[in-house]
Amino acid sequence: MKIICIGRNYADHIKELDNARPSEPIIFLKPDTAILLKKQPFFIPEFSNDVQHEVELLVRINKIGKHIDQKFAHKYYDEIGLGIDFTARDLQSELKQKGLPWEKAKSFDGAAVVGNFLKKEIFSDINNIDFSLKRNGKVVQKGNSVLMMWKIDALIEYISKYFTLKIGDIIFTGTPAGVGSVQPNDVLTGYIGETEMFSIKVK
Ligand code: ZN
C-alpha cells in the first residue's frame, strides 16, 4: 500500500507557514514503513529539533482505479479516518529552500499516524466533517472538511491522473492551522466530531 499526502489544502494553514497558495494540489508520498505501529509511542527522531503535528482526515481506498472522474470518486472509498502527518519542520524548511524533495522530513519511520476509521455512511455530508487534535488535553488544531480547497472527490480525480489507486491506499487530505512542535511526554489525541480516533504518546 501507499500513502498519498496533500500539502497546503487549507487556506488558514498556508497563511500560518507563509506559503504560496497553490494553483493545483501539492502531492507527496509516504512509504508503508512510515506508519506508526498501533499502540507504539512516537519517538522524536534525533535529526530534528522541531517535529510538528499535522492532524488530517484520511480516506481509505477500497477499489482499484486510475483516471477516476470526480463524479464517480465516491465509489472508490468507504471509510474516513484521522491521522497525523508528522513533519520535521526544520529539515523540511532546509529542503524547501534548496528546492529538494521533502521525503526525509515527512516520510521517516513513524511519521504517519493512522488512527481508526469510520464508515462513510455515518456522515450526512463528507464535505462537512469536524475534526480536532488535543495536545495534553488542550485543543490545538480544529478543522472541517468544508474548508478544504480541494475536496475529497476532487483530490481523488487529481491523484488518480498520476497514480493508480489500489485497495488499502490511504490519502492524507491536508492539515488546518494550528500545527506545532511536539515534546517528549506529550499525549496527542485526535477526534472526528466527539469520537476519539487515536491517542499517541510522544517520547
Ligand atoms: Zn500534512
TrEMBL record:
A Gene Ontology molecular function term of the record: hydrolase activity
Listed Pfam families: FAA_hydrolase
Residue stretches in coiled coil: none
Keywords: Hydrolase, Metal-binding
Xref: InterPro entries: Fumarylacetoacetase-like_C, Fumarylacetoacetase_C_sf
Domain Fumarylacetoacetase-like C-terminal: 2-188
Full protein name: Fumarylacetoacetate hydrolase family protein
